Amino acid sequence: MPETVFSRRYAADEVIFRTGDRGRNAYIIEAGRVEVSIERKGENVVIAELGVGEIFGEMSMIDDAPRSASVTALEDTEVVVIQRWRLMQPLESADPMMNLLLRVVLARFRDAQRQLSGIKNGISSGDPSLEEIRRLAFKRINTERDMRQALENGEFEMHYQPIVSLDGGHVAGFEALMRWQKADGTFVSPGEFIPLAEQTGMIVELGRFALEVGLRDQQLLAAAFASAFPDLAAPFMSVNVSGLQLSELSEIDHIARIIDESGAEPADVKLEITETLMVENPDHAADALHKLKALGVSIAIDDFGTGYSSLSYLHQFPLDTLKIDRAFVINMDKAENSRRIVQSIASLALALEMNIVAEGIEEAVQMADLKELGCQYGQGFHMSKPLPVEKALELAASGTTW
Fold this sequence. Notes:
Layout: E1 5-10, E2 15-17, E3 25-31, E4 34-40, E5 43-50, E6 55-56, H1 58-63, E7 70-73, E8 77-83, H2 96-123, H3 130-153, E9 156-165, E10 171-181, E11 187-188, H4 190-200, H5 203-228, E12 236-240, H6 250-262, E13 269-273, H7 275-280, H8 282-293, E14 298-304, E15 321-324, H9 326-329, H10 336-351, E16 355-358, H11 364-372, E17 377-378, E18 387-388, H12 389-398
Parallel strand pairs: 10-12, 12-13, 13-14, 14-15, 15-16, 16-17
Antiparallel strand pairs: 1-8, 2-7, 3-6, 3-8, 4-5, 4-7, 9-10, 9-17, 9-18, 10-11
Helix pairs in contact: 3-4, 5-6, 5-12
């Protein structure tokens, strides 16, 4: 069987492939630069220059279609070649790195298909302009490059939103939430970069970063909290874990290592997952969640009620906490249906002996209502917005109750 990936060198001005060639490989640049060009009205037009870390040639390898552009080395260049045969293999049999590379290729292919379909359906009449081609083809790759550089340059940081005991009114834990502020001061919304990180596979690296920083800060927050509430348990740290992180059981070994090296007590670590993982591949999910549970951590199901919400999985998996989505909580006093949904979810969780965290609390009356319904914990802007670690430490030490 051929190798999964291998490296190849190209001299300056050497053509890597031409328009019309059959596409059987994708390429990632390890060193050097390449030029991407297309033929337009009989002329060769350069549409991009790509450098280290960027990928090209992935579209044609999906279906063995002819190349739609030519790529030429601008200088001595080394590339990693990803062979098309690998796409024919089950993803489960690939090594973790290959899984990430394949997801990059597949995500870009699907995204380009959707966007180019949009052009044909009214964004532009006739052939797309060169600018449209350039924008659609390289917006994603440039954003991904920015994300990688941001991680290397320390532009990502963790903020912490308190999770409050609805019984005692004190902080019981914190949820770690990632924020991205670029070097020029621009903030990038999590709603923008998290989906992209999922599509490209970068969520694995970001997930490790979130856990490392979150557990480091948990110990600082616990020490600050103890000064104000010496008789109460240390606040737990709740960290989101992507389904992609759990797609390979070996990634759980990395999670275990991070927890062990942090010095945090596993009992103070809560890992939040989404419903999608359990519904799409329940057998794998069961293996992954039991392996996580064996670490001594607790597991929460996030945003319950907004996804598949299959009641059958709640008793099949080792879940400790159910988080009620904010969309239901904020409408509790405005729509009777929302209140009934919250009441039903709370009753279900209590019957299964699960803890409940209600998200999106914006008013004191909601806290009181949720406590009456049996919810043990809540979070939302009524208590506090997500805070940088310095402000979170001040809050933890202040003895604040709600």
